[in-house]
Amino acid sequence: MFNKKTEKLNKKCLALASQKLNKMSTLEFNNALIGLEGNLYSFAMSFTRNREEARDLTQETYVKALTYRGYYTPQTNFKAWVFTIMRNIFINNYRRNVKSGQIFDNSKDSYLLNNSQSETGNPFQRIAIKDILSKINVLTEEYREPFEMHFNGFKYKEISDKLNIPIGTVKSRIFIARKKLMEMLPDYAY
């Protein structure tokens, strides 16, 4: 009986000791996070292609990692954990921008379209919106419909289901619509 109690106590002590050994101290965590600064900035640049936005994304990642430090599992890939946080922040920000009506296309011929149709803003913005919308309306229905749905935040799968066409066709039509719009609106292409 004495041996069973001692054995139980030894197991508890070993469990507590291993938990202590597996935990990262705050200093170790902070040093590991700071050590990733260059890598995080490069990763952010691959997403944003803009220095200021990359710095903001890196800072936001630091804040989130420090806030959720308790969720990190010790002795796992710390770098992957932090990079996943950054990727998720970027995706959430992108989705937020899509819902607010801003679409960023970081392709070779990048351009920014603003879906704001309010009559507020300066006269140049109102003229630009009317010009862009008129060119979108010139597209044939087979290109205009998938493009507008994508522009309004629908996913390729949703467009495919709604229009009853394959996803590849949806992607192709949206690509062609963008290309035609860039040709029709050279003043808005960067």
Can you describe this structure?
The protein has 190 residues and is mainly alpha-helical. It folds into 2 domains: 2-100, Rna Polymerase Sigma Factor, Chain: A (Orthogonal Bundle); 102-188, Arc Repressor Mutant, subunit A (Orthogonal Bundle). It has helices at residues 2-22, 26-35, 37-48, 51-67, 78-100, 123-138, 141-151, 156-163, 167-184, and strands spanning 102-105, 111-114. Strands 1-2 form a two-stranded antiparallel ribbon. Strand 1 and strand 2 (111-114) form a beta hairpin. Helix 3 runs parallel beside helix 5, helix 4 (51-67) packs across helix 5 (78-100) and helix 7 (141-151) packs across helix 9 (167-184). The relative contact order is 0.07. Residues 16-21 and 107-119 have low confidence and may be disordered.
Secondary structure blueprint with pairings:
Blueprint: H1 2-22, H2 26-35, H3 37-48, H4 51-67, H5 78-100, E1 102-105, E2 111-114, H6 123-138, H7 141-151, H8 156-163, H9 167-184
Antiparallel strand pairs: 1-2
Helix pairs in contact: 3-4, 3-5, 4-5, 7-9, 8-9
Query: Please, what is the CATH homologous superfamily of the largest domain?
Result: RNA polymerase sigma factor, region 2, helix turn helix motif
Characterize the quaternary organization of these chains.
single chain
Give the CA-CA distance, first to last residue: 81 Å
What is the number of independent domains? 2
CATH architecture of the largest domain: Orthogonal Bundle
What's the CATH topology name of the largest domain?
Answer: Rna Polymerase Sigma Factor, Chain: A
Note the beta-strand portion: under 5%
The level-1 CATH class of the largest domain: Mainly Alpha
Mean pLDDT: 80
